Amino acid sequence: MRDVAVIGIGMTKFGELWEKSYRDLFVEAAKAAMLDSGADNLDSMYVGCMSGGLFVGQEHIGSLMADYLGVAPIPATRVESACASGGASLRAAFIEVASGISDIVLAGGVEKMTDVDGGMATYALATAADAEYEGFHGATFPGLYAMIANAHMHKYGTTPEMLAHVAVKNHDNGSLNPYAQFPAKISVDAVLNSVMVADPLHILDCSPVTDGAAAVVLAPLEIAAKLNAKPIRILSTGMATDSIALHDREEITHLNAVSVATTRALEMAGLTIGDIDFAEVHDCFTIAELCVLEAMGVYQPGKAGPAAMRGETARDGSLPVNPSGGLKSKGHPVGATGIAQAYEIVKQLRGEAENGRQLKDVKRAIAQNMGGSGGSSVVTVFEA
Ligand code: COA
To answer: Would you say residue 228 has pLDDT above 90?
Structure first.
């Protein structure tokens, strides 16, 4: 297996982007990543996308994007694993470069979610739940994560204030990210007094519906070193699956796919979670960030909420989590999210994060991207 590095990154602003089409978004991010990389050609590309069909009526996305990027006839494959589609796209590109099949490979992600109304967006997202056993009974992702939150509160004494601290911290980080959809700083009171979506999750506990795209360009390390002054290595990848339906899991507060994917990625990198300097994780709802950190082994079950209140996951905490603002503040264009996590990690490891959100002395980072309520997860380890 060859050593692999990220040599270029690109991203659009996240938000409600009426003026840009689906293909415009992808091409903007991909062109930025190629320019940043110094490479003038691609051998292959992957496009993470959860539901082009339901959000914009478009499938066959690999070819469409390769054509509009001007790189056809290279191989181009759309990758889907619900909200982990971006992470799965990165994993596919990593494997292709590591295997020696291709040298310069682009991993991108895109979603345009705001061209449909809220009901349709909720339906499209809910197709990533178990359609027959969850979807047909009216369950949506806010509802499913609310069930997880209620179980976590009942089992471990987690409180709405602990959840709110996750949102406050991520908005604080996102306020420094020029690409964030909701960069406003918020308070714990604002979260607790915001409109209830699915008890105990208020609107400010939820990630939003977002348009956006992100892309990274990968190359083998020996080529990377010639093209880019600051290649960032990808040390490893881990992916795992779980029952999609919550009722099929032994314990709904435990995200087993996250645990297994993290273990695989850390073992492949020859590291432990204690060797990691910061993390970008899948905070689609505030409770998700807590459950993810517990599943990754950062905290024992039930301990992530109190740690959030103590500020341990803030930019100056013992393990900064989501310095980008996370899905909560930066936005969550589902197919793009896993790549946007990689974008932030590369920026931080290069020492280029804007507006004072640069973390000090960081060398290694982990990205955790999740599909649905934990039916899939992809974990990637990076090193400067
Ligand atoms: N965080 C902060 N502000 C938000 C927000 C969020 N998540 N979602 C919407 N807003 C703001 C809007 O900008 C708008 O503000 P304005 O009145 O000043 O313009 C206001 O709140 C209402 O927005 P609207 O779009 O009407 O909200 P909505 O009720 O249709 O949707 C949610 C809110 C939470 C239901 C929706 O964002 C959602 O479904 N989020 C979860 C997405 C999801 O499940 N992703 C997959 C995860 S696995």
So the answer is: no
**40 vs 112: CA distance, rounded Å:** 28
pTM of the full structure: 0.98
Which protein residue's CA is at the shortest distance from atom 26 of ligand 1?
118
Distance (Å) from CA 376 to ligand 1 centroid: 24
Domain 4-117+210-232 belongs to what topology? Answer: Peroxisomal Thiolase; Chain A, domain 1 (3.40.47)
- Any atom of ligand 1 within 6 Å of the Cβ of 125: yes
Query: 221: Cβ–Cβ under 8 A, 6 or more apart, which residues?
Result: 2, 3, 4, 5, 231, 233
Any catalytic annotation for residue 332? yes
pLDDT in tens, 57-105: 999 999 999 999 999 999 999 999 999 999 999 999 999 999 999 999 9
Supply the pLDDT for residue 229.
Answer: 79
Q: Which of the four CATH numbers 3.40.47.10, 1.20.1300.10, 3.30.565.10, 2.30.40.10 does domain 137-208+233-383 have?
A: 3.40.47.10
C-beta of 118 in contact with ligand 1 (< 6 A): yes
How many other CB atoms sit within 10 Å of the CB of residue 133?
A: 15
